[in-house]
Structures are given as C-alpha cells and as structure tokens.
Automatic annotation (TrEMBL):
<feature type="region of interest" description="Disordered">
    <location>
        <begin position="387"/>
        <end position="408"/>
    </location>
</feature>
<protein>
    <recommendedName>
        <fullName>Transglutaminase-like domain-containing protein</fullName>
    </recommendedName>
</protein>
<dbReference type="InterPro" id="IPR038765">
    <property type="entry name" value="Papain-like_cys_pep_sf"/>
</dbReference>
<dbReference type="Pfam" id="PF01841">
    <property type="entry name" value="Transglut_core"/>
</dbReference>
<dbReference type="InterPro" id="IPR002931">
    <property type="entry name" value="Transglutaminase-like"/>
</dbReference>
<dbReference type="GO" id="GO:0046872">
    <property type="term" value="F:metal ion binding"/>
</dbReference>
<comment type="similarity">
    <text>Belongs to the transglutaminase-like superfamily. PNGase family.</text>
</comment>
<keyword id="KW-0479">Metal-binding</keyword>
<feature type="domain" description="Transglutaminase-like">
    <location>
        <begin position="245"/>
        <end position="300"/>
    </location>
</feature>
<keyword id="KW-0862">Zinc</keyword>
C-alpha cells in the first residue's frame, strides 16, 4: 500500500486528496469526481509544474503531487501543451486532406466516367423501397407486432432513466428501439436452411431458376441445398417483397433490412434502406429526438453506432448508399473515419460522375413533389451533409469497444474477415448513473406486514407458502394483462377464509405496485390500477421475483416465527435512489444500474472485470447510512463470470479515505439467480459512499468478464 497526498487545483479551488495508489487511475478519477463533480469521462488531469497531460496508464507513485484538473466541457487556458495539441491536430488534418487529394487524383485514372455499372447496382432498390409505402403491406406489418407490449417496454425504459413523463418525440424514439430489439428476436438468420422433409442439416448445391410462385414475390435468385441425411433438395428463394418476408421471417442481411425497413415505415418513421457495396444492408431512420438520421442494424440489434463496420468488423468500405422514397444519397462518410483510405477503393465511378448520377436519380424521384416539400428536403439535405462532414474528422470515442459481426455462421464470418477482435458492445467510460429504484425498496418493505400476519395467525409453513402462491398467481395475471388497463377479479380468492382474513396485510404491497382493491356495483371485487401504469409495469417484475425468493427461503426454514422477520426472508431498509458508477459496462443491456433494479432479467456486465473491477455507490443527497448487510445475486448464465473475491468499503469524506466493511474470498454461487446474504461484522461506520472492489471471478482462465444479477445494500434502522 502506497498512500500519497495529491494537491489538485480546479476552477481556482484547491483540493487535498490522500490516495492509495494501488487502487489505480480509474478509482483516482472517481475520487476527483466526488470532490469536484467533474465526471471521470470529462476529466483531463495535468501536472501543474510543466502542464503535461497525465495519461490513464501513468504510475501514480511517481508523478508529481501537484495536479490541475480541467473539465473537457470548460474552456482550457492557452498553454504550450494545448498549443502543441492544436498544432498536432492541424498537422493531422492537413495530412488527411493531402491523402484525400492524392486518392482523388489516383481515382481519375482508375475510375470510369461511365455510370452504367453503378446505376445498375442502385436502380433495383429505388423501386423496391416504394413498397414500404404501400398501405396494404404496412397494415400487414403492424398486425404482426405486439404494439402494446413494445409501448410498455419503451415507457419502462424511459422510466428507468427517471423520465416518467416523456414527450411524444421521446416515446417515439424509445418505441423505435424496442421495435429493433423485438425484430432481432423474431426474425431468423439462415446460413443453410433445414431440410423441408426431415429437418436435418443441408449443404449448398448451387442455384436454380425461380418458380412462378417465387417470382411473384420478387425472388430472382433461388439457392438449392441438399439434405445430409435424406438427400432431398430444399429451395431457398431470396424474396425481395417485404410482404412475403412478414410470412417467412427468415433470411440474411438483405431480407432482414428489407423487412425491418418496412416495419419502420409502417409505424411512421422516415426510413432508408442502406446498401453497402462490400455486401451488407441495414436501415436508417430519422430520429426527431436526435434531430438526425440514425443507424439501425436489425441483424445485430445495434443502433446509432455507424463505425460498427469499419472499427468493429474491420470492413474495407467503398460505397454506402441510402435509398429512400425521396432520393438516393451517398452516406459513406457517416460510416468511416478513414475517408482517404475509402477514396482509394472507390474505383467504380469518379466522384463528380457519382454526385451527378445521384442528383439525377433524386431529381427523378422527387418529380411531382410540392414546392414546399422540396424546400424542406433540400434544407435537410444541406444540414445532413454538413453534419456528416463535421463528424468525418471528429475523434473516435476510444472508450467504446465495437464488436465484430455476430450474425451468421462463425466460419462464414471468419472467411469474410468480419469476426473482429471484440465480441460485445461495451464502454470503459461508464458515466455516473442514477438508480431509479425506490419502487424496489417499497416492494421489499411491503412484505413485512404480510409475513408478520402469517406469524400472528400462526400459519404453518405449508399454509404460508400456499397463500404466497395464490398472491403470486394474482400478480402474474396482472403482469400478463394489458398494461394500460390492468385489472383482475379476486372473488375466488376471497372465498378462501385464510386469504380473506389475510388480505388487509397486502395493502402495503398493492400501494407499492400502484394498485388498489375496487368493489364494483354488482358486488364483485377486483384489483386494478391506482395510478401511473408505468410505475406498475416497473414494480410487478420486482414483486414476482421477490415472491419467488420468499417462497424459496420459506421452504428452507425448519420453523419460522418473529425471529424470521429479517434477512434473508425479509429485505428491510434497502438503500435506494443513489447514483452509481463502475469501471466499465456492457451496452445497452448490461449497464451498471441493471444491478440495482430488483429484477432477475437484468445484470451488470463488466467486459474486462474478471481480474479486477469496481462499483461505487453514492447515496441520495449524501445521506449517511450504517450498513448492516448486503446481498449479491448471481446472473442468468455463465457461472465462470460470478464474483469470487471482493472487498466492500465505505467512505464518509467524499472518497478521500475508505474503511473496509467486509471482505470475502472463495465465494461460490451454486445456482443461477442465487442470492447470498452477507452481514457486516465490522464496527459501525456511517458512510455515504460504498465501493465494491471485485478482485477475481470464479474462473479467470476461461473469461475476461464479470457479471452480477443484483446488488442490494441494507442499512441500520434509523
């Protein structure tokens, strides 16, 4: 342990920081965040004496103890260092521009002025995208979508960010993302189709002429496969009509993007089919929320990551063309940061000829458009071109890891050199996130009067489990009912004398779930919504998982009584509504707040956490708590990623010093979704910052990742 005192200057204020250098640079940045409120991903740290930037891999035992902190959102004073950085940036830009000029000169000798080959690649799509505006196809598409379910998920996703009253634009954006995730799960990738006769594997045999029934839906190509078992042939028509794809729901990237773009248009989103001449197809939609076109790849389930192909798949792009019902656009620059290299591969047609061709096709498509519509489109075209040019020379987000291709057979991906070096979309620059989890604490606390009533009424263990099972059935039925009008009759439950007597003890639970009992005019009783349906949607999964856990713990008890009204049976005084930051996280579903949402379906994933990572929890309004216990839950899969060794610490001085609250080694989770409870045995230490330092996972040899299903912190009763 090497502790040093650093003197940090920020905004004319001086901060002294005693720091254990063994904790590394990332934790150092978070402690600066605690002192200055500058998030780690906005920090630039300089050595005060000679104004040199401190790198993230710097040795904290040897650097100067006099530091200066700058937020990247603030104006940085001129210095020799910043001038040098600007000069370097100017030199780099000049080098890139020079490379572009050379590539353009070379293109004049390599590329053709003849537009025929390029036009033959684009023209078929111009007529294809018009099918997306066909009312019959749109209606057929909408009928296949569980609209209310996706609306519910969209609103819940916004609520988890603290947005319970989203605007129409925010709702539309969130719904589009849920549509993408749903489509990813509902469409099937086909490398080689299964045998139509026996269902076994097939091998490719070549091509065949399409049948009239296949050409009816635009199948100009038909692949033929032979079964490895029964030797019968299976045909795989490559349909181009998205109406047929609504029925077959399978294919490769062409079918996926074709069908998904129809879905986007069916729900009113301005959409484009994006054709990559190096053999891939995806979708763009105009996001009113972002104020720009957004990349969506239905095959990968990834959105707004246009550098996915160049940076993640290692694609050598040349032409990326957007085809829409209002024009054809060259959007290649959106998908590259190596334009000079891309230019050297654009040998099909010269840039002036390409620009002229696309303008002519667009003019042809827009013939007959009203003058006002043309004016709007021209303005947006100009804004888009300006935005693309600005982004072309912007810096990459080095903290973002983009995955290689995940759709298609692994050998096929390897043969195309698209496997990439990363398997997951993740970020090593995790922002401080707010935990929207008060409903979790309220749900946990709401079971206290229920279990207390069981004790008072002297129910046997089997009787208690029976009642809990009945309540679970009610909540499950509510969970499966339409989210805007959730209601369920409970007269059959009231006919059970035990349940009728115990029902008042469930009032707190109904309140936590934003539900109420209602007596109808005919005397029947039902449970229905009492408030915001989104609050109920958030809380119901928590209640179901909590009931499963209580039933599990009841079955483990030999006897139960007043002494049982504590962990692990009851989870009282859970700390909630704080903020949390981590060493890294998986995007978009493995973010760190997923460990605090009270549900089994989510988890926090740290892509490089197997040999060490951390989570820091900051209490709401910096309120002090004495921690008495905590629980960790294993995630849904991959037991090798379970935490095995860790240290839990608390701080009451903004993270300047840390006090060890608990230390665990060689821990093992035998089951998935298993909760383990740990009691704090050290002396009382009120804290408003809590830090988990995970030191190793169960099997560091087989994985680089750590994952945790949930983290719950329990405080002493105030």
């Amino acid at each position: 342990m090497v502790t040093r005192k650093f003197h940090v200057q920020h905004n004319h204020f001086n901060f002294d920081l005693d720091y254990d250098t063994n904790d590394g640079f990332e934790v150092f940045q978070f402690q600066l965040f605690s002192l200055t409120s500058v998030p780690p991903h906005h920090q630039k740290i300089y050595v005060s004496e000679h104004d040199t930037l401190v790198a993230t891999d710097s040795d904290l035992t040897t650097i100067s103890d006099k530091l200066r902190l700058i937020s990247i959102d603030e104006h940085q004073p001129e210095s020799e260092s910043s001038n040098a950085d600007l000069l370097k940036s100017d030199e780099e830009l000049a080098r890139l521009l020079q490379a572009e000029e050379e590539a353009l000169m070379l293109q004049q000798y390599m590329a053709s002025e003849n537009t025929q080959e390029f036009e033959s690649r684009v023209r078929p799509y111009v007529s294809e995208v018009l099918m997306y505006d066909d009312a019959r196809r749109q209606e057929a598409a909408r009928k296949t979508v569980p609209v209310e379910e996706l609306e519910d998920k969209a609103l819940v996703s916004l609520a988890k960010e603290g947005n319970f009253k989203p605007s129409k634009i925010e709702q539309d954006h969130a719904f589009l993302l849920q549509l993408l995730f749903w489509f990813k799960q509902s469409f099937r990738w086909v490398d080689s189709p299964s045998c139509y006769d026996c269902g076994n594997k097939t091998t490719p045999q070549g091509m065949a002429a399409p049948l009239p029934s296949e050409t009816l839906y635009g199948a100009s190509r038909v692949e033929v496969f032979r079964c490895t078992l029964c030797s019968k042939q299976t045909r795989f028509p490559r349909y181009n009509d998205p109406a047929k794809l609504l029925e077959t729901r399978k294919g490769r990237c062409g079918e996926w993007a074709n069908c998904f773009t129809l879905y986007c248009r069916a729900f009113g989103y301005e959409s484009r089919l994006i054709v990559d001449f190096t053999d891939h197809v995806w979708t763009e939609c105009f996001s009113q929320f972002l104020g720009r076109w957004m990349h969506l790849d239905p095959c990968e389930g990834i959105y707004d990551k246009p550098l996915l192909y160049e940076k993640g798949w290692n694609k050598k792009l040349n032409y990326v063309i957007a085809i829409a019902n209002d024009g054809v656009y060259d959007v290649t620059k959106r998908y590259t940061r190596k334009w000079h290299e891309v230019l050297s591969r654009r040998a099909m047609i010269t840039e002036p000829s390409l620009s002229s061709l696309l303008k002519n096709i667009t003019k042809e498509i827009r013939r007959g458009f009203a003058s006002q519509q043309l004016s709007v489109l021209e303005t947006r075209d100009t804004e888009e071109n300006q935005q693309i040019e600005r982004s072309l020379h912007s810096e990459d987000d080095e903290s973002l890891s983009l995955p290689g291709r995940r759709s298609g057979d692994e050998e096929w991906r390897k043969s195309r050199l698209e496997i990439g070096s990363d398997k997951h979309l993740s970020s090593s620059s995790c922002p401080a996130r707010l935990c929207i989890d008060e409903h979790v604490t309220k749900t946990y606390n709401a079971f206290r009067p229920v279990i207390s009533q069981f004790v008072e009424e002297e129910l046997t263990k089997s009787e208690a489990v029976e009642v809990l099972g009945i309540i679970k059935g009610i909540i499950l039925n509510l969970h499966n009912s339409p989210f805007k009008t959730r209601r369920i009759p409970i007269d059959s439950v009231l006919n059970n004398p035990k349940c009728q007597k115990l029902l008042p003890s469930f009032d707190d639970l109904l309140d936590a779930l934003s539900l109420e009992k209602k007596v109808n005019t005919d005397g029947t009783v039902e449970i229905c919504l009492a408030g915001d349906p989104v609050v109920t949607s958030l809380a119901l999964p928590v209640a179901l998982d909590t009931l499963d856990d209580i039933i599990y713990n009841f079955n483990k008890l030999e006897n139960y009584g007043k002494d049982s009204l504590a962990l692990p049976l009851l989870k009282l005084n859970r700390i909630h509504s704080g903020s949390v930051v981590a060493s890294a996280e998986e995007l978009p579903f493995g973010i760190v707040t997923s460990a605090f949402d009270g549900t089994q379906k989510s988890k926090w994933e740290e892509p490089n956490g197997a040999r060490g990572c951390w989570v820091v929890y900051k209490t709401f309004d910096k309120k002090m708590f004495e921690l008495v216990a905590y629980e960790l839950m294993s995630a849904n899969d991959a037991p090798e990623r379970d935490p095995m060794d860790w240290i839990l610490e608390g701080s009451n001085d903004e993270g300047i010093s840390w006090h060890v609250l608990d230390k665990q080694t060689s821990q093992s989770f035998e089951d998935r979704f298993q909760r383990k409870t740990y009691t704090i045995k050290s002396a009382s230490f009120p804290s408003n910052l809590f830090r988990f330092r995970f030191l190793a996972v169960r099997d560091v040899q087989s994985t680089s990742r750590l994952q945790i299903g949930s983290i719950d912190l329990y405080a002493k009763t105030m």
